Amino acid sequence: MRLFAAITPPAGALAELEALAAPLRPAWPALRWTRQDAWHVTLAFLGEVDESFLPDLSTRLERAAHRHPSLELSIGGSGAFSAAARARVLWAGIHGDQRALAALAASAAAAARRAGAAPPDEGRRYRPHLTLARCKEPADVRPLVQALGGFAGAAWPATEIHLIRSHLGARPWYESVGNWPLRA
How do the pLDDT tens digits run along the chain, 184 residues long? Predict the structure, then answer.
């Protein structure tokens, strides 16, 4: 099963971003826009994980979550990977205590590694974001980055982490496998 650990923003925060993003989509039909119900902040992408690792992985993610306090985050700004002029991914930024968020992501990755499900991208610099769209071929999305750049959503409490299974296909969808509260 294909898994990742993530924080899911509340519906209100996602609706604020959707109100800005929705009118932009028709002018950019070549992009594969992510649906609002799939928006999340990845902490650790685990890739393909054998189901037999799930019990230990769940236990370790629960421990990791309890070691970190709740965070106040917000969605704001935008950018692209690798660069806006030749982008593969258009994203919205995540604001808040970046050091605490990076520590939480590192703990989620370490929990996965200890459970035998080492993240394939572990060791890469953590850049919290919410993926809005993907491009099959590199695209110049500078107008979109500019249009979304001034967005500043309301702050919201991140109080738990989720282990999510992604089902690939023509219309990918996500299924929550488990969730654990952060320390109050």
Answer: 999 999 999 999 999 999 999 999 999 999 999 999 999 999 999 999 999 999 999 999 999 999 999 999 999 999 999 899 999 999 999 999 999 999 999 999 999 999 999 888 877 889 999 999 999 999 999 999 999 999 999 999 999 999 999 998 877 889 999 999 999 8
| CATH (residue range 2-74+96-123+155-181) | 3.90.1140.10
**Whole-model pTM?**
0.94
DSSP sequence for the chain: -EEEEEE---HHHHHHHHHHHGGGGGG-TTSEEPPGGG--EEEEEEEE--GGGHHHHHHHHHHHHHTSB-EEEEEEEEEEES-GGGEEEEEEEEES-HHHHHHHHHHHHHHHHHTT---TTTTSPP--EEEEEEEEEEE--HHHHHHHHT-BPPPEEE-EEEEEEEE-SSS-EEEEEEEEEPB-
